[in-house]
Amino acid sequence: MTILAWTYLLVGITFALYIGIAIWSRAGSTKEFYVAGGGVSPLANGLATAADWMSAASFISMAGLISFMGYDGSVYLMGWTGGYVLLALLLAPYMRKFGKFTVPAFIGDRYYSNTARTVAVIAALFVSFTYVAGQMRGVGIVFSRYLEPLLSSFELFSLDNTGKGVVIGMVVVFFYAVLGGMKGITYTQVAQYCVLIFAYMVPAIFISMMLVGNPIPQIGLGGSVENGGYLLDKLDGVLTDLGFAAYTSGQKSMTDMVFITAALMIGTAGLPHVIVRFFTVPRVRDARKSAGYALLFIAILYTTAPAIAAFGMYNFLDSVHNKKMAELPEWVQTWEKTGLIKINDLNQDGIVQYTSDPATNELDIDKDIMVLAGPEIAKLPNWVVGLIAAGGMAAALSTAAGLLLVISTSVSHDLLKKQLMPNISDKGELRAARLAAVVAVVIAGYFGINPPDYVAAVVALAFGLAAASFFPAILMGIFSKKMNKEGAIAGMISGLAITIFYILKFKFNLFGGGSENDWWFGISPEGFGTVGAMVNFIVALVVMSFTKAPPADVQDLVEDIRIPRGAGAASDH
C-alpha cells in the first residue's frame, strides 16, 4: 500500500474511534460536560491527562525545535517536564480538595469576588486561545502533507492546504468536544494517548536500530553510528562545518534559558485545561494517583524526544546537503508541495547547499515538519509514515478539545451561571456551553490558519500568560490565608497586562516593535511570563498589605484545603 493509502486507513480508523467514543460517552448533564461526572478511574485519568498535556507542541514541534536548536532546545524538555511535577505535587491535590469545576471558580470563591472570577475568565480565554492556535497549526501541517492530493482537489476560501487542513480539524474537534464534553473528551483522550505514544515510539525504535544498532532510543542517543564515531560528535562536526553552532553547545544567554524554563514550569502549574482533569476523579487520593500515572506516561515521550531530534537532524543533513537537485529524495519533493520546504538554487549549480549564511543557504525548512518527515527521511515502511500522521493528529486534537472545553465552561459556567444568569437551568447552561464551544472552534481555527510562530513557540507564549496570571493567584490562594481579593485581582491584572504588552511588542511588532537586541534584560517573549509572575506576586503582596484581610470563613477554607484528604466532590455550588 502507498503512504497515502496507509494514511487514509489509519487516520480514518482513529477518527472513527474518537467519534464513536464521543457518541457512546456523550454528556447528558453539566457535571458530565464539565468534569465527566467525577467518576473517572485514576488510570484512565492519567492516560487522558497525558494526552491532554502532550499536545502538538510535544509530539510535532518539540523534537523539531531541538533538532535545529540543539542544546538550547532543552528548555522545552526541562520546563514542561518540571512543570508537570510542580503541578502534580504542589497544586493538584489542594485544587481537587477545593472541589470546583474550573480555575475561575476557584479564583472567584477563594477570593470571594466576582471581579476576581471575571479577571480569571479573561486570563483563561487569553491562555486557551493562544494555546489552541498552536494545536490548530499542528492539525493543518499534518493534513497539508498527508491529505495533499485531496486538499489540492478543491478550493476553500482561497486557503492553502495547511489552512484547509485546519478547517477539517475544526470540524472533527467540534464534533466530539461539543457533543461529549469532558466525559467524551476524557475517554477519547485515553484512546488518543495510546495512538500517539505508539506512533511516536515505533519510528524512534526503527531509526535507533538503523543508526546505532540499539532498540532503545534513549540509550541510542549516546551511541555510535555505523561508519564510526559517536552520533552527537558527528552532528557537532557537520553543523560547525556548515557554519552553525555545535549541536551540543548553547547559544542562548543563561538568563533567557532560566526565564524560559521557569515560565514553562510555572505556566504548566497554572494551565486551566490540565488542572480541571483532577476534578474528574472521585477522591483526592485518586487525583494523586492519576498525577503519578500521567507523569509516567508523559516521561515515555519526553525522554525519547532528544533522540528523535538528533536522529532526525543527522538523517536530514545526510539526505539533502550537497546533493544534486535531480537526485534529491522523494520526501523533499513531497514536502515541497506543502510549502514547508523551499529550495532556491542561488548559484545555479544544481547542487543544494544548506548553510548558516542566508546569502548562500539554498534550503528553507519549517522546524515543525522534522518529526512528521522523520520516517520518510529514514526510508521506513509506508505504514510507519501513515502511523506518524495518525499520532500527530491525536496529539493536536486531544489538547485542542481540552482547551475548547475550558473556553466554553469559562463562558457558560463562570460568566453566565455564576454572574449574569444565576437562575439558568441545567439544560440552558449546557446549551450555552456548547454554543460557546462552537464560537471558540471558529476563533481557534482563524488563529490556526494565521499563527504567530512555530507550534512550540506559540504554546510557550500560552504558558507565559498562564504563569503571569494564574500561578501566583492559585499558589497564594492555597498557601496564604492573608491574601485577599484586592491583592489577587491587582496581581493578576498587572502580571497579565505586562506580559501581553511584551508579547505584542516583541512578537507582533506592535507598540513600536523591537528586535532581539531590544529585549528587556535579554529575556525573550517566551520567557517573559516569569517576569509577569514576579510582577503579579509583588503587586499582590503590596496591595494586600494596605487592604483588609479576608473574612474568617475564607481563612478557615484555606486551612481546610491544606489538608488534601477526603472526597472533595466537584461542585458548582
Topology:
Layout: H1 3-24, H2 30-35, H3 42-53, H4 56-69, H5 74-98, H6 103-110, H7 114-146, H8 148-152, H9 161-212, H10 217-220, H11 231-241, H12 254-268, H13 272-275, H14 284-320, H15 330-336, E1 341-343, E2 363-365, H16 370-377, H17 382-420, H18 426-449, H19 455-479, H20 485-507, H21 528-545, H22 552-561
Antiparallel strand pairs: 1-2
Helix pairs in contact: 1-9, 1-17, 3-9, 3-14, 4-7, 4-14, 4-17, 4-19, 5-12, 5-14, 5-19, 6-7, 6-19, 7-9, 7-17, 7-18, 7-19, 7-20, 9-14, 9-17, 9-18, 11-14, 12-19, 12-21, 14-16, 16-17, 17-18, 19-20, 19-21, 20-21
What distinguishing features does this structure have?
573 residues, mainly alpha, Sodium/glucose cotransporter
What is the approximate shape?
A: globular
Report strand %.
under 5%
Distance between the termini: 56 Å
Q: At the third CATH level, what is the topology name of the domain at 3-233 and 249-314 and 378-467?
A: Sodium/glucose cotransporter
CATH class of the domain at 3-233 and 249-314 and 378-467: Mainly Alpha
CATH superfamily of the domain at 3-233 and 249-314 and 378-467: Sodium/glucose cotransporter
- Measured on Cα atoms, how large is the radius of gyration? 24 Å
CATH architecture of the domain at 3-233 and 249-314 and 378-467: Up-down Bundle
Short description:
This protein is mostly helical and 573 residues long.
Q: What does the model show?
A:
This protein is mainly α. The protein has a domain of 387 residues: Sodium/glucose cotransporter (Up-down Bundle), CATH 1.20.1730. 57% of the residues are buried.
